Amino acid sequence: MSPTSTTSSTTGSWLVQGLLAGAAIVVAAGAYAVISTRRTAKYRSRVVGIIPARFASSRFQGKPLIPILGKPMIQRTWERAKLATTLGKLVVATDDERIAEICLGFGADVIMTSESCQNGDEPLIEPEIIDGVVKALQAAPDAVFSTAVTSLKPEDASDPNRVKCVVDTHGNAIYFSRGLIPCNKSGKANPHFTYLLHLGIQSYDTQFLKIYPDLPPTTLQLEEDLEQLKVLENGYKMKVIKVDHDAHGVNIPEDVKKIELLMRERNLS
Ligand SMILES: *[C@@H]1O[C@H](CO)[C@@H](O)[C@H](O)[C@H]1NC(C)=O
Predict the structure, then answer these.
(1) Which of 10, 43, 162, 268 is the most exposed place for a label (fewest CB within 10 A)?
(2) Residue 141: DSSP 8-state
(3) What is the mean pLDDT of residues 116-123?
(4) Is 269 inside any structural domain?
(5) Sign of the CA dihedral running 181, 185, 190, 194
(6) Residue nearest to atom 6 of ligand 1 (CA)
């Protein structure tokens, strides 16, 4: 990990003002520490990882603090993200004093934000996925955003809380939807097709982040209630990496038991 200057916390605060709905982990990859040519190894090399942690939630109040095998979920997510090698700095962004205090207690850097941010709710996120998303953006100067998908489990095909994605042959996102995309003419999920599930980890170019919050909401974004569609509807490119990840997002209290069971099985603690 490389040391970062104090401006990264400023980066963090404008980053989380209302634009990161649905993200478990967000990464801002900066180009400004950089030298002349865009394609140097240092391109977008100042990388700040941000884990949003909001206390209030319609479905799951106080979610970031729920214990998973004895540690708060936010701590588990933070510990995993901490293992990513591409992050120069990692912060928890929260709207809540209780969360801030606990995070400071286990050694995290914390920034206070408005209430609009979402939740770091992928406690089993692999650090390699974070690194993969960061590197994808660093390797794609024509993209302003990168994110990850994994294969969708057939039983999740009709769940509107699982966001699906389709990509082009260059690995750029074409569209995200709560509906099943693509749609087979049989009207049912095709067991032979690999549908892609969007994972809540994303990386943005910091220059792009300066204009992004000021872009007005777009039609499809509002209809699907998916923040990332604003990027595509405005014509920006988004890189998508495919990863092998058994998604265990915590959306409802019952998910905690499932995760704990899985962690015991895998001897994670
Ligand atoms: C649609 O799904 C069915 C299985 O449900 C599959 O046999 C078929 O090849 C798929 N594609 C088309 C174009 O029907």
Answers:
(1) 10
(2) T
(3) 63
(4) no
(5) negative
(6) 190
